[in-house]
Specification:
Blueprint lengths: L12 H14 L1 H10 L11 H10 L4 H13 L5 H6 L2 H6 L4 H12 L4 H4 L4 H9 L6 H10 L12 H10 L8 H8 L6 H21 L1
């Protein structure tokens, strides 16, 4: 993960393109991957309480299930800390939250995170603040930093898709561990979040191509 002061944010497609060009110039495998993927997605979403709550909802369930549950959460108006704090157990159960996720939702609602201040915090401070909340692990915090705060130099080495894509793209004998991938990714600084976008996109394109054969 990145540390130190906030040095670069990804806010528009040209930022992603700049990072991709830098990565391609540094690493021939990235250049070949970009030929296959084409321009990378911006993949930037709003930040704040609802964004983090959505990530909690999505943990350990299918994409379809996460979307269905989140749709019920939104319909019930449970998208602010005040609304979640005021909700009873039956209210949270009715939208599809498991007992652990009810606990995590309440913990997030009680955390009193200053989301505006997080935008100006260092990458390390963002990760530390978020992981201090029950139910938010390092991976969730890193993904939030990358795709909700637009941090250019944050990476999520514990992500299984990133590990598997690194194995494929770099022709590794086995899927790298989180520590091994974190070490690899140091060479991709200051554009590690763009490297993540490239690996995620390459993974999807590769799987689509496999389905065509």
């Amino acid at each position: 993960m990145g540390g130190g002061a906030v040095t670069r944010l990804i806010t528009q497609d040209t930022d992603v393109a700049e990072g991709a060009a830098w990565l391609a110039a540094q690493e021939p495998r990235f250049a070949r991957a970009l030929e296959l993927t084409g321009p990378l997605p911006l993949r930037l979403a709003p930040d704040g309480f609802a964004a983090l709550f959505n990530k909690i909802v999505s943990q350990q369930v299918s994409v379809a299930s996460a979307r269905a549950i989140w749709g019920r959460v939104e319909a019930a108006g449970l998208v602010t800390p005040d609304a979640v704090r005021a909700a009873g157990e039956e209210d949270l159960k009715a939208v599809g939250l498991s007992r652990p996720k009810m606990k995590y939702a309440r913990a997030l609602a009680q955390a009193q995170i200053d989301y505006d201040a997080l935008r100006d915090a260092t990458d390390a401070q963002v990760i530390a603040t978020l992981t201090d909340v029950s139910g938010i692990g390092v991976w969730t915090a890193q993904v939030y930093a990358m795709f909700n705060l637009g941090r250019a130099d944050v990476f999520a080495p514990g992500d299984l898709a990133l590990q598997e894509t690194a194995r494929m793209l770099f022709d590794l004998p086995a899927r790298p561990t989180a520590k091994e991938l974190d070490i690899m990714a140091q060479a991709w600084s200051p554009w590690r979040a763009v490297a993540a976008r490239l690996l995620f996109t390459y993974y999807r394109v590769s799987k689509d191509r496999e389905g065509m054969t």
